[in-house]
């Protein structure tokens, strides 16, 4: 039974890693958006819209990872 708890803890840790990877991805996307606006200031509105949409989708992935981690930690004790 102790091995099962350990595997649940490893699974929860891996699920939490989605938050770290999401943060790195959003930072990379924001940097590329700033580059794009500096190269083409006329397209700022379209670039901002795509950046916000992409960050919202990435944040959804992080929230799902957190939900899975909570389920693993508190439901599968």
Architecture overview:
The chain contains 2 helices and no strands. Helix content is 90%, strand content 0%. The chain has a domain at 31-77: F1F0 ATP synthase subunit C (F1FO ATP Synthase), CATH 1.20.20. The model has no long low-confidence stretch (mean pLDDT 89). The relative contact order is 0.18. It has 77 residues and is mainly α. The termini are close together.
Topology:
Layout: H1 2-39, H2 44-74
Helix pairs in contact: 1-2
Secondary structure: number of strands: 0
The H-level CATH homologous superfamily of the domain at 31-77, spelled out, is: F1F0 ATP synthase subunit C
Strand content bin: under 5%
The averaged pLDDT comes out at 89
CATH architecture of the domain at 31-77: Up-down Bundle
Give a short overview.
This protein is mostly helical and 77 residues long. The chain has 2 helices and no strands.
Name its key features.
F1FO ATP Synthase; mainly alpha; 90% helix; 77 residues; elongated
